[in-house]
Design goal:
alpha/beta, Rossmann fold, six-stranded parallel β-sheet, 17 helices, 42% helix, globular, binds GDP-alpha-D-glucose
Length: 504
């Protein structure tokens, strides 16, 4: 590990990229050959990269981000455009201390819990804030060096709130977008942040600021209004229409505008993110997936109902709550242990943070209690996986699942819900979905539940099992049609359309 960050000289001469994405993580993963020890890069498979790749290719695009290691990565270590799948990958190095203070600290132990409605208490630490500012400056400097004259720069997420204004300070010619992937809290909560004014000012450097839901956008506008900004709100009739299942308007949904001191107007919009629906559907119907699905159900003892959860192991995802609901159903006799098997994939996440360690301990305790009470020799009731699986296997699992459990306490969107729906083009399956996810504003035909209420989760599971097949199928079909047209390309295009309009 090294403690040598990138230089922080403030560059402002234009670079060569007409389209630049700035995100905490790079869109390439570094892999080590286990035999030779040789390092190589592979394009990262995420939906965001997939959606933006055509735009990046067509515009000599660049992706700026952290390479995922605190060992210093030189520009010369980076993959070629072809190796990176059609984009120029530009590293922003983080030292071990930056990682602790900017990423684990301010991003994930201050903003993450604050924005997820204080499921755990956020920590406010002045050193972390200093470091967050320093690292955001470094990302902005790199963007200023990379963007061509009049380029479009799209900044992603809560780790980089300050980048839009820090970039604009150096490069007034560029057009800047900002998208928040997690919820924005109500003004009363946001006011707790000692650096609320600085955070908003940084974000308002963007011309278009996007959220997943109307609630988040409204919270942002209300916060600005409360802090004295001049805010106007647009008629949100269009928003109401697409929240209830219709196709999102081609030009996205602008719900408000903020007049700024420098004469600019920032547009605030709702752009619910989605997945590469066609790809997930194709994968779910591939012959290998169908064979793997049959094999998996047999391996699990051919249960009447296979219930599944797939999440990062994060306290926001309600993994504990769904396990407790399943346990209650077993304890009360509403569910027969002979009838069900549950799979919970909980991929490791932010494991050095206390709240994540605690969440893991709580989940594992309940898994082991359920298995102790209801498992049989050679047949646990809950199959618990605490490591990542290849995406093809995740899709196979979706396809095999009768009832998908998405019970987040709070979630910006939740892509797992959409991936599950996309894996059931034939209308099979059922989705139990928390009201507190962005996905619930669109997948309204799911079996909705309030994850704070154990009985509400239990009832949603039982409804998913007992409703007539025909009704269940209609629900899945309606959601599938929604996800099919509102895919991640549509999401990216609508946001970029608004950015283009902002420039004009
Ligand atoms: C943030 C916001 C918002 C999970 N386990 C494995 C695996 N996954 C993949 C899923 C899905 C993704 O991870 C999780 O996406 P989510 O949307 O559920 O959650 P966050 O990571 O919290 O994402 C969220 C999102 O940003 C986008 O804006 O929806 O609200 O919190 O794609 O499939 N993938 C593989 N192996 C696993 O074991 N390969």
């Amino acid at each position: 590990m090294t403690d040598q960050p990138d230089s922080t000289d403030h560059a402002s001469a234009p670079g060569a990229a007409d389209f630049v994405v700035v995100a905490n993580r790079l869109a390439v993963d570094r892999a080590k050959d286990p035999k030779t020890g040789e390092q190589s890069w592979t394009p990262s498979p995420g939906g965001l990269v997939t959606a933006l790749r055509p735009v990046l290719r067509a515009n000599d695009g660049a992706w700026i981000g952290w390479p995922g290691t605190t060992d210093r990565v030189e520009d010369s270590d980076m993959p070629t455009v072809e190796e990176a799948g059609g984009l120029r990958a530009i590293p922003v190095n983080l030292t071990a201390k930056n990682f602790e203070q900017y990423y684990e600290g301010f991003s994930n132990a201050t903003l993450w819990p604050l924005y997820h409605d204080l499921i755990v208490p956020p920590r406010f630490d002045r050193d972390w804030w200093e470091c967050y500012q320093e690292v955001n400056q470094r990302f902005a400097d790199q963007a200023a060096r990379t963007a061509a004259q009049d380029a479009t720069v799209w900044v992603q997420d809560y780790q980089l709130h300050l980048v839009p204004q820090l970039l604009r300070d150096q490069r007034s010619d560029v057009c800047v977008g900002f998208f928040l992937h997690i919820p924005f809290p109500n003004p009363e909560l946001f006011r707790q942040l000692p650096w609320r004014d600085e955070l908003l000012k940084g974000t308002l450097g963007a011309d278009v600021i996007g959220f997943h839901t109307q609630d988040s956008a409204r919270n942002f506008l209300d916060t600005l209004r409360a802090l004295g900004y001049e805010v106007s709100t647009d008629d949100d009739a269009d928003a109401a229409e697409f929240f209830h299942g219709a196709r999102m308007p081609e030009d996205g949904c602008i719900v408000g505008r903020v007049a700024l001191e420098d004469g600019r107007t920032a547009k605030i919009g709702v752009f619910p993110i989605s997945i590469d629906s066609a790809q997930v559907q194709k994968q779910s119907m591939a012959a290998e997936t169908l064979a793997a699905t049959t094999q998996l159900r047999a391996q699990l003892g051919a249960p009447k109902y296979l219930l599944t959860g797939v999440d990062r192991l994060d306290y926001t995802k309600g993994i504990l709550h769904r396990l407790l609901a399943v346990e209650s159903l077993l304890d009360s006799g509403r569910l027969d242990p002979e009838d069900i098997v549950m799979v919970q994939v909980a991929t490791p996440s932010r494991e050095r943070l206390d709240d994540y360690r605690k969440a893991r301990e709580e989940v594992e305790k309940v898994v082991s209690r359920i298995n102790g009470n209801y498992g049989q020799l050679g047949r646990p009731l809950v199959h618990y996986i605490h490591h990542g699986l290849p995406f093809a296997q995740i899709v196979g699992l979706y396809a095999a699942t009768d009832i998908m459990l998405v019970t987040a306490i709070k979630d910006g969107m939740n892509l797992v819900a959409k991936e599950y729906v996309a894996s059931h083009a034939d209308g099979s399956g059922a989705l139990v979905l928390s009201e507190f996810t962005g996905a619930a504003t669109q997948l309204t035909q799911a079996y909705l539940c309030n994850p704070h209420d154990n009985q509400s989760i239990c009832d949603a599971i039982v409804r998913a099992m007992e409703e007539p097949n025909e009704t269940r199928r209609e629900r899945m079909k309606a959601m599938w049609e929604h996800v099919e047209v509102n895919d991640v390309n549509h999401w990216a295009n609508t946001f970029l359309h608004q950015l283009k309009e902002a420039r004009q």
